Amino acid sequence: MSIYSLQTIVSEFADSLFMIDKSGIPFRNYSPGVGPYGEPQLLKKIAQIMNFNPNYKGRIKTKREPDILIKGYWAIDVKLARPYGDNGKEAENWSVNLLHPYEGNQSALGDCEKLLGLNIPEKKAVVVIGYEHDPPKICLQPLIESFEVLAKEVMKIHLGSRITERRKNLIHPVHQQLAVNAWEVLGRL
Known about the structure:
This protein is of the alpha+beta class and 189 residues long.
């Protein structure tokens, strides 16, 4: 498997998230752990960790479009899925980050549209980082499957097969496990 395969990148993302979690450094005034981090701050930390790997040699850049660029290899947009907030209460509208199927929005579906519109040589992928209790109080699987159905059946987006890496035993009292799900965005159906 290539060091730049999407499977390898997803595994590196998951390992980086686990390292951020185990550092115990809280994001702002939230409980320690990786779960509460905002998307831009989290992506910056992932890029820093992955760029220490000699295989990447500083190739990983955080940008506005796409969220992460691995020069010459991947353009990646990332979304977070957190059914519960740091306070343990169910978050309002948390699933909109993935499923809002309208052009110009900030959902994972919107990210697929943006990626398809980029005229760049890199392959394109969308990544969803999800956090759950262990065992899940709200399982993310139906949301992930709904994203795939909407992408294919409604938006006519051709996604590659889902790649998933999981990590358990996170230190946050609510965000106890994570899953990194990724799909190559291949074009239109």
